[in-house]
Every structure is written in structure tokens, then in C-alpha cells.
Write a structure and sequence with these properties.
- The complex is a heterodimer of chains A (183) and B (321).
- Chain A has 2 domains: 1-117, Rna Polymerase Sigma Factor, Chain: A; 130-183, Orthogonal Bundle (Arc Repressor Mutant, subunit A).
- Chain A is built from 9 helices and no strands.
- Chain A has helices at 9-18, 21-43, 46-62, 73-91, 98-105, 109-129, 132-143, 148-155, 159-182.
- In chain A, helix 3 packs across helix 4 (73-91).
- Chain A starts with 8 loop residues before the first helix and ends with a helix.
- The mean pLDDT of chain A is 84.
- Chain B is an alpha+beta fold.
- Chain B is elongated, with a radius of gyration of 31 Å.
- In chain B, strands 1, 2, 3, 4, 5, 6, 7, 8, 9, 10, 11, 12, 13 and 14 form a 14-stranded mixed β-sheet that branches.
- Chain B is built from 9 helices and 19 strands.
- The model of chain B is unreliable at 75-109 (pLDDT under 50).
- The longest helix of chain B is centred in the N-terminal third of the chain and has 18 residues, at 33-50.
- Chain B has 3 domains: 2-45; 106-242, Sandwich (Jelly Rolls); 248-320, Phage tail protein beta-alpha-beta fold (3-Layer(bab) Sandwich).
- Classes of the chains: A mainly alpha (183), B alpha+beta (321).
């Protein structure tokens, strides 16, 4: 599988050992968002997912000298973040889904997960292209789970406008989803 | 019309527990295959967007990480060089680190290349199989391949001083980003950063190539290779001092005091401060061969009639008498 970045395991190891900020930042820029999306998939909580990603990179920086990455950097990081998620779910005595355990145990599900993250990234990027108001309304509705009436009240607009903006946003997303489904 | 339809579907999806809306939706779905298809499309987008987290703010995340990094405990990989009198302190810190961490060797990086990253806190040295010596600044990484046919080194990042053992039959070459340095037997310094690699020669002759251009350098000359285009430039002046940290011989020929102080400061791991801009610009020719810091400062003070104010162990100010 192609890696988005040309940071090899040996370069990453060197950079962590030597605390090379430039390479470390490149690692962060390349992987923080996919890792966030993956962590969110496991813990279903945006701010917890954000903290877990921060903790992972902080750990890499602090303990860089002891860490040896073998194989692909991306697959190493996906596993590391998954393990942190499992620990956190255990600590909070939350249910640990079968899927996350399967991912931990099985190399094949790595590709499935990579596809999932790629798809989520595409969606996220696409959301960025929506008009700001339209995007805000979609996020309030679908990410924060607000009712259309609540959104209308919060933004001081009519419920009809909320519906209209939601339909625009979903229509635009449909364009994204369509070809994926057929393939 | 299209939007009215979407709104009807969204209205249902947003409140799918409502029996009245369920009934109306069922009626509509049963009215035709086309309705079902349209419903599925909207539902898919609805569900996919429901699985997204809040947008990820990468810049905020990086800022938070930077704060953490700034406060993280220092590891021993990069430490400023202590003054000579305190060598035992450095040894006390370094010895366990060296024993624990050892050297970072990585054999077989592909095609017979061996990779080495400087681990020592001040200056690391590496003797290559052909007898050439490479001195590395902390963090510098070289890869080398030495066999009967060739002597090749790649400098990925960082600064290294090379003292090449003469061998008329095997050319020695160093690859930098977009550039190639060729030598027979000589010593020279390369500093590779993201934007440029500069090559300064201590003695002998070196050729530097990039983007179809080739320049020949002799002692004191420097060439700069642009890491993006491979363009080679050769600035005027004597740059031998750039090799000083590597062979403990800091030699300056008609250089500004500013350059001298920056070089000495980086070599001894101290800060040398001069507030007087005119003084900073004055040019001197001087050589510090294997000299401890206090002797070097005495020499400078004598030359320029200065007084040294020691503000702390690592911080000095030079003032006109």
C-alpha cells in the first residue's frame, strides 16, 4: 500500500531519537488527522479522540530514544493509537467492540481500516468545500446531534432554512458517496 | 421540487421515531421504486455524515504539542558542549547514556549502504572502512558504501567534517540533496540543511556538481548547492573556519568578529555577546588551534583590546576596554 508520506521507519526512528522537530512536524501533519479519525471510530468521542492523538505524539517525543518503529510508519501509528484507545476504554470500563479487537489481532483488517480512514478524510475534505453556514448546520445536526428546531433557535433562522441547508449539504455529499458505492 | 423532496426525507430521518411521519414515509416509499432509490441516497449521506467526528483542528493540535515539547525533559542526545573545566560533568552524564543507548547502527539499509547517526553530545567521529574519518555534529546522519570499486557517502541531514584518506584508485564522493561532491584525498566540511548544502574546504581539492554545473574548490573556498534546484554557487571569501569544529582548528581569515564569535560560540557551546555593532563588524585574521575557551577569549581580548564579562557559566559578554 502506498504511503502518503515518504517518511520511512528508519528516518522516523532517527528523527525521534534526535528530536528532529522538522521531521516530527511532518509526521504530525501527515498522520494526526487519520489517527484522530481512527481513534474516533473506536471511542466515539471527539474530544477523547483528540486527547489520545495528542498523548500518542507526546509519548513519541518524550520516549523517542526507546522507540523502534519497524515496517510501515503508518501501520505502526494506527496500531499504537488503537492500543491507547483500548486502554482508555478499559480504564473507563466502557465496552470494547469486537471490531477494535479484530483490528488489533488481524493484519488483514488493516487495509479495511485504511480504506475507512481514507473515505472519512474525503468526506471531511468535502465538508470543507461547503458554504460555511451550510457546513455549520450539517455539523450541528449530524455531529452534535441537534434537532432541526434546536438549530433554528440557536442560529436565529427558520426551521425551513435549516432543512434547506441540510438538503443542500446532503445532496453535495451524495455526489461523493455515489461513485464509491458502485465500485 | 428536488429540495422539497429532500426536506421531506430529512424531516423523517431527523425524527424517525414519529409514527405519523413513519406512516407518511411508508406510503410515499410504496408509491414507486424511484422514491425508494432517492430515499436510500439521502439516507446514505445522512448516515455517513453522522459518523464523522468534530472537524480536526491540526494547527491547534500542533500548538498544544509544541507546548508539551518545550517542557519535555531533555534527553542526552543533544547537549551543548560544556567548558573544558567541567569535562567530568559531561562524562558523568554521557557515560551512562552512551552505555545504555549505544550507537545507532543500522546495517543493510538496502544496496549495501550502512547508516550512522551521530549520538554523541558534542562531536561524534566515525572511521570508515577505507581509513577516512568523518566527524559529525549531533543528529547528523550519513550513509556510506565502501567497497573495492567505490567510496560513496550520502549526507542526509546535518553537518559533517570529512578527512579523506588518499586513494588514487578509488574516488571518494558525497551525495547531498541535488548535489555531488567528489574528492581524492582532502578534508572538507558539509552542512546539509533543508534548503541548501554548503561545502567548505580545509585542504586539497574538491569538485562540487549540481544541475549540470561543476565548480572546483581549493582550501578556504566554499560552494552552496540549492537543495531544490541543484544550482551551485560559489560565494567569495575564505570559509576555512567552517571546518574548525571538526578538526579543532578554528582558523579565520579577514572575517567579521560576528562570524568569529558565532563559530566559537557554537564550537564551545557558549553564548558570546557583543553589543557594539561597529565592533561586531571589525575584521580579523586569527587561528585557534586546539585551544580551550578561556585561552581563545584571551587571544581575542588582546587583539581587539576587549574585556570579558562572564555573566554565567555559558554566557559571556565582550566589551571594549
Amino acid at each position: 500500500m502506498k504511503d502518503e508520506s515518504n517518511i520511512s521507519a528508519s528516518l522516523a526512528n532517527d528523527a525521534l531519537r534526535n528530536r528532529d522537530v522538522t521531521v516530527f512536524q511532518e509526521l504530525y501533519t501527515t498522520y494526526s488527522e487519520p489517527l484522530y479519525l481512527l481513534a474516533f471510530r473506536w471511542v466515539k468521542d471527539s474530544s477523547l479522540a483528540k486527547d489520545i492523538v495528542h498523548n500518542l505524539f507526546a509519548h513519541l517525543w518524550d520516549r523517542g530514544g526507546d522507540i523502534v518503529i519497524t515496517g510501515q510508519v503508518r501501520s505502526y501509528l494506527y496500531r499504537a493509537v488503537t492500543n491507547l484507545c483500548i486502554n482508555e476504554l478499559k480504564r473507563r470500563k466502557r465496552h470494547i467492540g469486537e471490531e477494535i479487537l479484530r483490528f488489533q489481532a488481524d493484519d488483514h483488517s488493516f487495509f479495511e481500516i485504511s480504506d475507512y480512514i481514507l473515505f472519512q478524510q474525503e468526506l471531511t475534505q468535502h465538508l470543507g468545500t461547503l458554504a460555511p453556514r451550510c457546513r455549520e448546520i450539517l455539523l450541528l445536526s449530524r455531529v452534535h446531534g441537534l434537532e432541526p428546531a434546536e438549530i433554528a433557535g440557536k442560529l436565529g433562522i427558520s426551521v425551513n432554512t435549516v432543512y434547506f441547508q441540510l438538503s443542500v449539504a446532503l445532496k453535495s455529499l451524495r455526489g461523493r458517496l455515489g461513485p464509491k458505492k458502485n465500485s | 421540487m428536488e429540495n422539497d423532496l429532500s426536506q421531506f426525507i430529512i424531516d423523517f430521518l431527523a425524527d424517525s421515531g414519529n409514527p405519523e411521519k413513519q406512516r407518511r414515509m411508508n406510503d410515499w416509499l410504496n408509491a414507486g421504486e424511484e422514491n425508494r432509490r432517492r430515499f436510500d441516497e439521502v439516507r446514505q449521506a445522512w448516515e455517513a455524515s453522522g459518523q464523522l467526528p468534530e472537524p480536526f483542528d491540526m494547527q491547534a493540535g500542533w500548538r498544544k504539542l509544541r507546548d508539551h515539547m518545550a517542557n519535555a525533559p531533555q534527553t542526552a542526545t543533544v547537549r551543548p558542549m560544556p567548558a573544558r573545566r567541567n569535562w567530568w560533568r559531561a562524562a558523568a552524564v554521557l557515560l551512562p547514556v552512551v552505555v545504555l543507548a549505544g550507537y545507532w547502527w543500522m546495517k543493510g539499509t538496502g544496496g549495501g549502504w550502512t547508516s550512522y547517526t551521530a549520538q554523541h553530545a558534542v562531536k561524534d567521529s566515525l572511521r570508515l572502512p577505507d581509513g577516512s574519518d568523518v566527524f559529525l555534529r549531533p543528529g547528523a546522519t550519513v550513509q556510506y558504501k565502501i567497497d573495492n570499486g567505490e567510496r560513496s557517502v550520502r549526507l542526509r541531514a546535518g553537518e559533517a567534517f570529512f578527512r579523506i584518506s588518499p586513494d588514487a584508485h578509488r574516488q571518494f564522493s558525497v551525495q547531498v540533496e541535488k548535489g555531488l561532491v567528489r574528492v581524492l584525498g582532502t578534508s572538507f566540511n558539509i552542512n546539509a540543511t533543508k534548503g541548501f548544502s554548503d561545502v567548505a574546504v580545509w585542504d586539497g581539492k574538491v569538485s562540487v556538481e549540481g544541475n549540470g554545473k561543476k565548480v572546483i574548490l581549493t582550501a578556504g573556498n566554499m560552494a552552496v548547492v540549492d537543495a531544490k534546484t541543484g544550482d551551485v554557487e560559489q560565494p567569495e571569501g575564505n570559509y576555512a573556519y567552517r571546518c574548525g569544529w571538526g578538526n579543532s582548528d578554528l582558523s579565520f581569515s579577514n572575517q567579521s568578529l560576528q562570524v568569529v564569535l558565532e563559530t566559537l560560540g557554537s564550537y564551545y557551546g557558549v553564548s558570546l555577546d557583543v553589543k557594539d555593532a561597529q565592533l561586531l563588524g571589525s575584521r580579523i585574521t586569527v587561528r585557534f588551534n586546539n585551544m580551550p575557551l578561556d585561552e581563545s577569549l584571551t587571544v581575542l581580548s588582546e587583539m581587539l583590546d576587549l574585556r570579558v564579562n562572564r555573566r554565567s557559566e555559558k554566557d559571556y559578554e565582550l566589551i571594549r576596554k
